[in-house]
Each structure stands twice: as structure tokens, then as C-alpha cells.
Amino acid sequence: MAGLFEQLPKKGEIWEHTKTGGRYEIEGSTFNTLTDQVDVSYIPLYACEYSRFNRQLLRHPKAFMSKNEDGTPRFSRVEFPTPM
Fold first, then answer.
1. Which residues touch 35 (CB under 8 Å, ≥6 apart)?
2. What is the pTM (predicted TM-score) of this model?
3. Which residues contact 53 (CB under 8 A, 6 or more apart)?
4. Tens-of-pLDDT digits for all 84 residues of the chain?
5. Closest C-alpha among 83, 64, 82, 60 to residue 74
């Protein structure tokens, strides 16, 4: 289980939707008392009607850790080069 939590989005990270290329900055996570699930809040880094989104991390079918129909991850963490 610890390995799963290491893979989850963390505050300040940038994640990219693998099909659309849309990027999102992770704002943080919250505990949803109505669903007893952890949600992630993120900000779209593109022109959008909404300023923020929330998603259940583990139960929602379109959550960050879900897969596309071809088995590839729905979202991927954007890795930036380390400054020298």
C-alpha cells in the first residue's frame, strides 16, 4: 500500500492528461467526509471555464491513477530537468 501512496499526486506537482496533453497543477488533497474518500484538488494550466477541479483519487473511474482503454495511465507526472 505504501507504494501506491508514493505514486499519488502531491501538492505543487504538474500532471498531464495523456490523451489531451492538458496540464494541471496539484493544489492539494482533501478528505471528503460525505464519501470517506481522499480527493485531489487541481488547477488547469490552460484556458478553461473552471478555475479548479476535484477528483476522488481511488474510487472515481476517471481518477488520476486510472488507465485508458489501451492500458496506459490516464495522467502522468511531468518531470522537469534537474538544474545543474
1. 56, 59
2. 0.73
3. 24, 41, 42, 43, 44
4. 445 556 678 899 999 988 889 999 999 888 889 888 888 899 999 999 999 988 877 665 456 667 778 888 888 889 876 676
5. 64
